[in-house]
Design a protein that fits this description.
Length: 333
């Protein structure tokens, strides 16, 4: 972005959009700047400029506050098949600095795609690093990431976090889409065997390498916790656990912190970068990127979207975890 010259008259907008990541701009001023950026023919993306022609209002003239964002329809399904090139704002110029194209998990249908550009990625890395520091996570230690890679962004996030903090990332790849297909087909035993296959790989790395931080999903963390030897290894070697991808309720987090992993710091991935929350950025907009955030998640909300935070109740696996730790209650999140 540094080499790209904005059209005349957009200096104020530039100042608002290019504030430091931990800044707190006036929300309504920020919305006006975002509307100008995304719907100006010189800076907006092909997708939003085309979409504006179908809207019964003029975003640049009529959307001037956070409340006005409610005028927009829910376009999340359109992200399933839109050309990714059409999501890149023209304001980035001929070399936008694409880090990657990432997809959602596909839980509600065909995956949705977003484009991650270098300036956002650098901000995300700096903010994550600061958030981990604030939560007392160590630097200069190796990471074990038992998370999806491939089209899923979380694998790249783990690589960025480990490298940015002076560590090496060890990986165990997982395919959540395949697990969902197995469960939908009634093949619970195969899904269970696949999950145990992942735990076995994680166990080998925990035993043979100096792992200081583990990043994984709540379901896999529950499975690891069921193995007394692995729980002991984590308590002995690991200083922090970063979890994400699905919901973990407050009762389970309490059990981990007090009973299962009492000496290990526990942090949600969305909590590692609080400055990227929608407390900073108005809902539905990701600064210069042309992708909407579909809803506000919790703990705290993240502009990247951690939207699958609606699971409640107590699964069989969680009930087993509670029995293991001597806790009989199973409270909703």
């Amino acid at each position: 972005m540094a080499d790209y010259q904005q059209p005349t008259g957009t200096k104020v907008i530039e100042n608002v959009l290019d504030l430091p990541i931990d800044a707190r701009p006036d929300p309504d001023e920020f919305v006006r700047a975002a509307m100008e950026w995304h719907f100006n023919p010189q800076t907006g993306s092909a997708y939003w400029l085309r979409r504006a022609e179908t809207l019964p209002f003029d975003p640049r003239a009529d959307v001037t506050s956070v409340e006005d964002l409610a005028l927009f329809p829910n376009i999340v399904d359109e992200l399933r098949d839109v050309r990714v090139e059409d999501l890149i704002p023209r304001g980035y110029g001929p070399d936008p600095g694409i880090v990657g194209v990432y997809e959602s998990g596909g839980t509600t249908g065909a995956p949705k795609r977003v484009v991650v550009l270098r300036d956002w990625w650098n901000q995300h890395g700096a903010c994550t690093n600061a958030g981990l520091d604030a939560h007392g996570f160590p630097g200069n230690v190796d990471w074990l990431a038992v998370v999806p890679s491939g089209p899923h962004q979380i694998g790249e996030v783990a690589t960025q976090a480990a490298a940015g903090r002076g560590g090496i990332k060890f990986s165990v790849d997982m395919d959540p889409r395949w697990v969902k297909k197995l469960i939908a087909a009634g093949k619970a035993e195969e899904a269970d065997a696949y999950a145990e296959h992942l735990v076995e790989q994680a166990a080998f790395l925990l035993r043979t390498q100096d792992i200081g931080v583990v990043m994984t999903t709540p379901p896999l963390l529950e499975r690891i916790a069921r193995h007394d030897d692995l729980a002991g290894l984590i308590n002995e070697k690991v200083q922090g656990i970063v979890w994400g991808g699905t919901h973990m309720d407050a009762d389970t987090r309490y059990l981990y912190r007090t009973e299962v992993f009492p000496g290990v710091k526990l942090c949600a991935r969305t909590c590692c970068c609080p400055a990227t929350s929608n407390a900073t950025w108005p809902p539905g907009w990701s600064r210069r990127l042309a992708r909407p955030v579909t809803r506000w998640p919790t703990c705290p909300p993240s502009r990247v979207s951690a939207a699958r935070m609606s699971l409640r109740g107590c699964t069989d696996d969680r009930a087993d975890l509670h029995r293991r730790t001597g806790a009989a209650r199973c409270l909703p999140g």
